[in-house]
Amino acid sequence: MKQFQSFGLDTSNQCLLREGVPVDLAPKPFAVLRYLVENPGRLITHDELLDALWPETYVQPQVLRTYMLELRKVLGDDAAKPRFIQTLPKRGYRFVAPVTERANGESSATAQDAKATAIVGREAEFDCLKKQFEEAASGQRRVVFVTGESGIGKTALVDAFCRRLDPAMGTTVARGQCVQGVGATEDYYPVTEALSQLCAAPHGETACKVLTRIAPAWLAHERRDASIEAFDTRSQERMLGDLCAALEELAAEQPLILVFEDLHWADDATLNLLSALARRRAPAKLLVLATYCPLTGTIEDPLRGLQQDLLMRRLCVETALARLKKAVVTELLSRDLKQDSLPPGLADFIFQRSEGNPLFVFAVLEHLIVERILVRHQVKGAERWEQQAPFPEMEAGVPDQLVRMIELVIERLSEHEQHLLEAASLMTVAFPAWAVAAALATDPIETEEACDGLARRLHFVVRAGQDELPDGTQSAFYVFAHGLYREVLYQRQAPARRSRRHIRVADRLAELFAGREADVAREIAMHFKAAGDHDRAASVLESAARHAEQSAGVC
């Protein structure tokens, strides 16, 4: 095991440990970290890293940036003051923390036991996976979609489930990771990765023999071996049939679990294979677990359309992960901090700030520790976490690692969509379409249609209803499913542009409520104040106060 500070890299069990407790990390980020840790102290160029992890495959260098952001989030590292991974601009990366070697021994088993019990508040979802596996193990193939927003714990659930499998059953688990940008350039990318794991497993020679006999072109594609039949010399339909038959033979005697991560980035060819595996009728001890974040929600989206069709035909099930309840968040914090009694108000603050998203829970907790708001002290001979300073105001900013994660989501959108969301963030967590149109000086009908499109596609924007405006027109309103997204969108705008948009919304409010400005005086004043126009904000409030006095006198 490779040890660096409080972390351990268990290469045998393919997991990262923090103080002996496994940390959730997808296969590809783990591979990136492993390569860096195994080459400490020296520059690892972008090309070297790409060649090591994606040999003979073109992958956009941007993928490395995504993985580095994820690794820094997990390690609690800061790019400006790195403790672990140093970025050398335009060259590559260097692992700067001292690395030592120690035997796995008993600590590895202990860590695995801890990992098995680390999933909190997902008992029903875990039972669903268990039931589907039991049916698959009896010869009835099963496909399960594990869905939920970013950071909700999809991978953690699947990892915990796979680790709790009974070794006596001889179950084989093979994973394929979909990568943003790769699906557009390489068909079957996650499938190829899963096949590589099958062939490299302890009994991988069996998988290689089956592929050689039934699906030689797939083995050629997995190995990039030109001496075997070329991958593209048969029709796609025949290729799919060959691989399905090979997987069914591999799952004839012992269970086989295929895990496809982040299926929202999968290529169409991979989705076609998933469809074929779900629809075939031959008996097979096969379980397919596919995780994805519902970035899109319309039937026109290939993944969503496939899932809806399979659900309608009862050929799959969906396990949708909801946000955690406050009691579960409290239990998570107690486990992570290793103390039953938490500092007063800590669970309330983190629950309100994270809104029950597990990734956000730990990011906010890490932020409090880094800022020394939470400090570990010796109390009666034992170490305890205690509050050292007041908790920050709820609007005091977003932890840096969450800013980076949310920015990655936002940057995938078009410039027009980004402007829409930025304008929406000028309001509270709830925002009406007419206000977005006012902020951007665009047509209200077209803006509402664009907001509807975002609500269908994004997991963090939800259409919440329809309002009737004073002039009798209708306008839909929406909510940010998580307030942290709204805060990041608000802060990323240039102050001058943000001020101009606030003033447009204030002017539109006054126009809509002409003669009744007092009814919305606080909202108008809020926008003027946010724009820095304190005189107009004060004038609006004074006018409303005079109106209230006159109304009281009349009464």
* Total number of distinct structural domains: 4
Q: Could you name the CATH topology of the largest domain? A: Rossmann fold
Query: Helix amount, in percent?
Result: 40-55%
Enumerate the spans where pLDDT stays under 50 for 5 or more consecutive residues.
104-117, 225-234
Give the C-alpha Rg: 27 Å
CATH top-level class of the largest domain: Alpha Beta
Task: Identify the overall geometry.
Answer: globular
Structural class: alpha+beta
How many DSSP-defined strands? 18
Could you give the topology of this structure?
Blueprint: E1 2-4, E2 7-10, E3 15-18, E4 21-23, H1 27-37, E5 44-45, H2 46-53, H3 62-75, E6 85-88, E7 92-95, E8 100-101, H4 105-116, H5 123-137, E9 142-147, H6 154-163, E10 172-177, H7 189-200, H8 204-214, H9 216-223, H10 236-250, E11 256-261, H11 268-279, E12 286-292, H12 302-312, E13 317-320, H13 326-337, H14 346-354, H15 358-370, E14 374-379, E15 382-387, H16 400-411, H17 415-424, E16 430-432, H18 433-440, H19 444-457, E17 461-468, E18 474-480, H20 483-491, H21 495-512, H22 521-530, H23 534-554
Parallel strand pairs: 9-12, 9-13, 10-11, 11-12
Antiparallel strand pairs: 1-2, 1-8, 2-3, 3-4, 5-7, 6-7, 14-15, 16-18, 17-18
Helix pairs in contact: 1-3, 3-16, 7-8, 7-9, 8-9, 8-10, 11-12, 13-14, 14-15, 16-20, 17-18, 18-19, 18-21, 21-22, 22-23
